[in-house]
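pipeline: protein-struct stage 2 | run 1193 | Cytochrome b
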Amino acid sequence: MTKNINNQVMNFPTPSNLSYLWNMGSILGMCMIVQIITGIFLSFHYKNDINMAFMSINHIMRDVNSGWMIRHLHANGASLLFMFMYIHIMRGIYFKSFKYMYIWLTGMTILIIMMMISFLGYILPWGQMSFWAATVITNLITAVPLIGKSLTIWIWGNFSVAESTLTRFFSLHFLMPFMMLFLIILHISSLHYYSSSNPLGMSKNHDKIPFFPFFMIKDLMGFMLTLFLFLILILMFPYIFSDSENFIQANSLITPIHIQPEWYFLFAYAILRSIPNKLGGVIALLMSIMIMIFLPFLNNNKTINSNMNMYKKLLTWMFISTFFMLTMLGMLPAEEPFIKMSLLFTLSYFIMIIFLPL
């Protein structure tokens, strides 16, 4: 066993020209560990009851030893997790890492499950934005023909978002990360089987060096910078990613002026709002994520790497700009001219992501 660990970690053959963009995988692993550990400690004090959930968060922040730190680590850790995940995916698209189909498919499955876990966790503080965001997003399921309304009621466990919804969301939010660990192991195993891609797109068996000490030092540097970012967030800007409406206890009789999800879902939210038809918006929302699964099947192996192709490089940066614009538009009210702008950037998003591998 020691020999296997040594071969898979210390002496693992790695392309010699990997940049710091290839650190994102190990940083994501560290962030995931932080999320699981802090989540377990938070679950000791959280009450999944609509009359006590909001106050239990206050109790964690005020009365539990270091509870404020654990809560800020968990809340801001989710934002960092998605930030590094998006960088990880964009690096994969830019350098055509999706040509390793099994690695890409397991990675995209992890992203989808991570989004589900995050959405389930967003309702748990039982603040105004948590309650209404959960109500709006789960109501989208009613757009499914024939079974939509029944499926929504089944998910709620009631005729609206209520205590039964909070209970099942909490249970799934706690259990699903442990299920996701299995996919992470598959993802890492497939990476070690097929080997890493590299910036120049060279043959995977060409010019390799051991992982230790050359790339372990890079990973340690990435860990230290990430921990420093954690410290800045929890000590100086703990609420930078929070919505002020969520500091008010959920009230089904008062609707917030502007309902929006967490920042890492805003690009998909902008795509959803840009389509006037409800079912069409839901399909566009799902396809904004699912379309990435098909990138390996659209891959044109005759094209050269982005670093050698000016037009592909330009298209990639245009796609990144489109993603940022959709994120910004998702924060703005659902009115003109923002809806038309969202529709324009939605079309650009899908056109670019289809043409990138081609």
